[in-house]
Design a protein that fits this description.
membrane; Glyco_trans_2-like; globular; 367 residues; Glyco_trans_2_hopen-assoc_HpnB; Spore Coat Polysaccharide Biosynthesis Protein SpsA, Chain A; transmembrane helix; 17% strand; transmembrane
Amino acid sequence: MLGWIAASIPAVMWVGLLLVPWRPWSTRERIEADPQAGLADLGEITVLIPARNEADVIGLTLAGLQTQGTGLQVVVIDDQSSDATAQIAASFPNTRVVSGQPLPEGWAGKLWALEQGKAHVHTPMTLLLDADIQLQPGLLAALLAHKRHDNRQFVSLMADLRRTSFWDRLLLPAFVYYFKLLYPFALSNSSFRHVAAAAGGCILVDTEALQRAGAFASLRHALIDDCTLARQVKNAGYRIWLGLSRSVVSLRPYGTLRSIHDMVARSAFTQLGYSTLLLLVVTALFGLAYGLPFLLLGSAHAWRLGLIAWVAMMLSYLPMLRYYRMPLAWALLLPVSAVLYLGMTWSSAIRYWRGVRSRWKDRTYST
């Protein structure tokens, strides 16, 4: 009897995932650009772009903003760059370049740059945009229209990560998939207080909401700054919204397993609150969800339960593959991506135990 109960756990997990009402596997929360919309009046928005050694991409990011509409003000905070980031940014119209000061103790680099930039915001709304994010024509108008129609004070979009190699295709759609499982968009977008999430690459927020939430000083040490900011804005009584978009394009090239590892490992253990117990729980859950179904497939008595779990697992990933226009056969490799992500999480924990909380952009944040 106990054996059958144990064998049914992965099937219950995966079928339950498909049936929960908030549908974390769904891609229904989305906004795409309308290239036929024409140039919108964006005079109510100031864009803040923290940039550190982004000479390779900052020109494309700023060029994308030029196509969005009229009246848009752009502030680039040059965060101690050693390349031509500042010079490239200064060549664009309606763009102010702020020379960033040295990073103070206790601050994360991106948040310190934004803190310096916010003094230059005098508009009702602020767009927080990463230096490696390019907006397709019409995207900002569509995002603004959704914000107003839905009466939200904080809206953000998950960028479309470039998929140029086997490792990109294996791991980057799965990254978004796992993020949605961890932070179900439907719950984050609801009044439910215990889930709040955002995608830091593209956030359109009321400037007043930023100020009342205490940004950016109140979250100055946060490494997962987007979700921390979303939680503080939501707790301040404002309405937030998060969705997907293929029109918010990440220019950051990954391409290799190592580069994706570095991206994940810098904050994976932070996501678990630096808790060894939670790390062990996650490891056990991954073993039950991905390992046990394979073992059951070889069982003469419980193979049907293994097959149910396997099929439900594949079905939960198919909407993400369809959204990113990838062959559905990639769903067969979802367990492989799970093993790799679990390994990256352990790597993040090992870094922390060795005294490194995070490492990014030639900066190391110690424990």
